[in-house]
Amino acid sequence: MERVDIEALVGWAYRVQCVDRMAGLMDVAWGEAGPSFRSATHAMLDFAALGVRVDSSPGFVVAMGATAQDDALVIHDAVLRLPSEAFALVVAHAKGGSRPPWHGIEAEALVADTDRKGRVRMLRDNCRPVACLLRHRVDPALVEFSRAQYVVWWEALVVLAGELAGRLEGSHPLAPSAPREPWFLPPLVYVEDGARMLVDTAQII
After folding, report:
1. Which residues, 6 or more positions from 117, have their beta carbon under 8 angstroms from its beta carbon?
2. Tally of CB atoms within 10 A around 195
3. What is the distance between the alpha carbons of residues 115 and 129, in angstroms, rounded to a whole number?
């Protein structure tokens, strides 16, 4: 049995197998009288409309007999049981093949650069000001929020790896190889033409 990182397994279920669509088709096929699968998108829409998580987890998938696609359904079943915030993060990043941003790049804003006296610094052409210089400003609160979201996503993957152990026919889930708190790792440095840029802060030093 292949040992696979849980992040890759969940990505396979949602990007390759499109398991939420598969589950939605099964929902239609079974009809109102039979067991019900609800797509991840449908569940998120319910949450947005009602303000609460609608628990429609189909526990019967474990007893269906396993194929590669059925493994995806078992994964989907486990994901549906996650708390709402973790559920939304796991599904969104599984579909996108991404991880929650933690470095604050999305939290940046361009602001006018100023000198020590607070005056806006200008670009000049023939001594005439033509544009103000801009710099990045990172909102610490948004950076803190993005890192908290990352931890929720990472811990949800740990929960999924534990719950899915021994339940899949084609693979054995491993704990996520992604670091829990990557911001404590040594910073990645991009070097070009003598300038050094910290990738995790996008700050020229």
Report:
1. none
2. 9
3. 15
What is the domain count for the chain?
Answer: 1
Instruction: Give the 3-state secondary structure percentages of the chain, helix then strand then coil, rounded to 5.
Output: 45, 20, 35
Domain membership of residue 14 (yes or no) is: yes
Whether 165 maps to a domain, the answer reads: yes
Rounded average pLDDT per 10-residue block, the chain, 205 residues:
94 93 56 45 48 45 51 94 96 95 66 80 80 73 89 98 94 96 71 43 36
- Two tokens at 144? 């803190």
The pTM for the full model equals: 0.62
Question: How many angstroms separate the CA atoms of 110 and 200, rounded?
Answer: 17
For the chain, the first-to-last Cα distance in angstroms comes to 48
Q: Is residue 44 part of a domain?
A: yes
> How far is Cα 160 from Cα 83, in angstroms, rounded to an integer?
12
CA angle 188, 189, 193 (to 5 degrees): 160
The tens digit of pLDDT for each residue in 47-99 reads: 444 444 444 444 434 433 345 578 999 999 999 999 999 999 999 999 999 99
Q: Is residue 49 part of a domain?
A: yes
Q: What is the Cα–Cα distance from 187 to 203, expressed in whole angstroms? A: 12
State which residues form the domain around 82. 2-101+145-204
Dist. CA 70–CA 22, nearest whole Å: 10
